Amino acid sequence: xxxxxxxxxxxxxxxxxxxxxxxxxxxxxxxxxxxxxxxxxxxxxxxxxxxxxxxxxxxxxxxxxxxxxxxxxxxxxxxxxxxxxxxxxxxxxxxxxxxxxxxxxxxxxxxxxxxxxxxxxxxxxxxxxxxxxxxxxxxxxxxxxxxxxxxxxxxxxxxxxxxxxxxxxxxxxxxxxxxxxxxxxxxxxxxxxxxxxxxxxxxxxxxxxxxxxxxxxxxxxxxxxxxxxxxxxxxxxxxxxxxxxxxxxxxxxxxxxxxxxxxxxxxxxxxxxxxxxxxxxxxxxxxxxxxxxxxxxxxxxxxxxxxxxxxxxxxxxxxxxxxxxxxxxxxxxxxxxxxxxxxxxxxxxxxxxxxxxxxxxxxxxxxxxxxxxxxxxxxxxxxxxxxxxxxxxxxxxxxxxxxxxxxxxxxxxxxxxxxxxxxxxxxxxxxxxxxxxxxxxxxxxxxxxxxxx
Amino acid sequence: xxxxxxxxxxxxxxxxxxxxxxxxxxxxxxxxxxxxxxxxxxxxxxxxxxxxxxxxxxxxxxxxxxxxxxxxxxxxxxxxxxxxxxxxxxxxxxxxxxxxxxxxxxxxxxxxxxxxxxxxxxxxxxxxxxxxxxxxxxxxxxxxxxxxxxxxxxxxxxxxxxxxxxxxxxxxxxxxxxxxxxxxxxxxxxxxxxxxxxxxxxxxxxxxxxxxxxxxxxxxxxxxxxxxxxxxxxxxxxxxxxxxxxxxxxxxxxxxxxxxxxxxxxxxxxxxxxxxxxxxxxxxxxxxxxxxxxxxxxxxxxxxxxxxxxxxxxxxxxxxxxxxxxxxxxxxxxxxxxxxxxxxxxxxxxxxxxxxxxxxxxxxxxxxxxxxxxxxxxxxxxxxxxxxxxxxxxxxxxxxxxxxxxxxxxxxxxxxxxxxxxxxxxxxxxxxxxxxxxxxxxxxxxxxxxxxx
Lengths: 453, 453
What we know:
Two copies of one chain form a homodimer. By secondary structure, the first copy, chain A, is α/β, with parallel strands linked by helices. Chain A has helices at residues 43-49, 69-87, 97-108, 124-136, 151-159, 176-188, 212-225, 279-293, 298-310, 313-338, 364-373, 403-427; strands at residues 55-56, 119-123, 142-147, 163-170, 173-174, 193-198, 228-232, 256-261, 272-276, 344-345, 353-357, 376-377, 379-380, 393-397, 451-452.
């Protein structure tokens, strides 16, 4: 996430210097959960990585340059002119009723037949993860996650003092046998599983998609074991080769909380996401939302609603898919052209991300400062594990830069890797030793199997 | 909070019937904190109270009918046209840098000299209360609150399993001796106080303002006892008779977290509030914000920023103050004209609320259904206490209805009270007995002293 530039043309007096002390006089007074809220080790580096000369393959920002600003501006102008007093006022804690209807239309594309009453609008789907975790997780409760998993969700689970247990995934997504084994192991240890957090489509960061057969198997296991499924699906409509996959929620209404978002298909700056939940859970989510914000922003909800009403949003998504496919192709081609032979990766069928596994012994986190010096950035695999795994992998995003910049970024990255390999051959390991934590049946597991290039 | 009507003119297919069961199969699986998230007992009644024939003196919705929609529309149109790709994109977790500068300009009106680096933008100041509580409160920690206090903050404290200890207030605000006694009592009991939550200006619900002398005393006590002050100030610029009061934060930077909001001075539908915090606390708040939402909405932040830049917002606030003063006057006049002699109330010098204490023996919560039947609504005092006090009082809002409707509402309320008094004289108490919980030095205390009419 890069900071925004100030609005040009606005009067901007020089701010006074900050005078407060940098020592934390509150250090002994925070809640226990606050110990789980720590700045990412790579955050400082990302400030550098946001410089224009660096090709960032790190961020997950959607490319919204294709949005029709005239349509958006006119829809919002109409909104203020005709419904200003409603759009500028407090709204329902559950979210705008008209938008919740439109959200059921969006979900219908993935086979979900839902009632607007069961939808809760959230401040991006990040807040949906936060609210679900808030209502379900006591300290020490277990959340099952794919290995690797979305860094923002792992942060929420940590902030609510839940323990993450990773479950192996492969090129077809979550491995059912591994899921069953993880559930059995956690139950045997006397701990309580609160839910399985999964991103079935175009996984962040792994790029893989859960196969149809796997979906049925995963649902069967979770039904049998009474494990709630938290299905996070921000990228589901951004498949490159086919119609949207059928959601887990389409085949299981009572056992799945489904999360969606307009951040990838329209605008992340609106911060409009949602949860579709079984009725009783939905009631709790509304109470949690009211406690957290009173209500999500009426203004941005109605702006999204107006955009959906006045624009061919499905046509717009088709254009986005083409644009992202071109970028995916540019990245895969560049990987094939430049990366050293011992690297592996997958070719995602949608979404934003490729998961790259490095030659044995290379530590992606240790290498990152050298990559940024060479003007390319990525996210080391460790960010996507709660347990220290992932050092041998990295996430590359193809969503934001142009195809040319992607190619140049991968070229630079390959150069850094070559140097790294040479240095390693001369002097041994250049970064900290990779010391994976042993967990469940996984041993040295570093992410999903990837196709060898 | 009343639900919004759907957007007229939009295509709205009849939604399918909800089919999910109303039984909660998750009842044993929620987090312990979720037990503290309960729907208000009066929520169902408020659905009825939102009917147009009911005069609602219950809600705290600002009257935004005076906002210049043409200016707002044009500012937002310019925003999309010139800065669309930024406004529609993810932003900083801390909030838009330009807006944070403008927020320091707003706070300067209350004597606060702050750096934009120490400001965190939140989804309304409700979210600021949530984030501060999240980073400070473990279950069983104590939060000191005025008696009565803001219902939305009490909900947050409950949701994070903090214990609220109320401190008496009078016509000059929080009573310093009561504060010192409460701190001593809590410390003697071995519990940990995390902060004092206070609304110094035009208190919600009590309508009172903390005097200058009291501010110094409260700060002295909190410094000496090392109690953090959470200063919630949504109404500070809405005084009717004088320039804004000097904020507690203006005289104490390290010991105060200050909360502000654009909900009452511009638009609640934007959901833009903020926290100004000591540097170390600010860092934790940003991490908590990133975990909760990734970032607050860029779009509404930049819309607020554009409004502040392009409009005479201080002139607009002056108009609002006149409008609210007229409504306050209408309410006080109507109370004097209609209410039975044993009722007391205060005359607030700003904000939205009057605190009314009923004749002995009348239970405001028990009476509410009869009031709604008589087409007038209010909030019973018990909503503003964590401990069962307040049944003999009610909060009346003068912010939203017209002066004529306010007068009519109070007339209806007086009629209900008269009937209630007559019934009581004939048959004894009509509602549940008022059984106040004993707490600290308070005994049968039901809110601040009020002037006899």
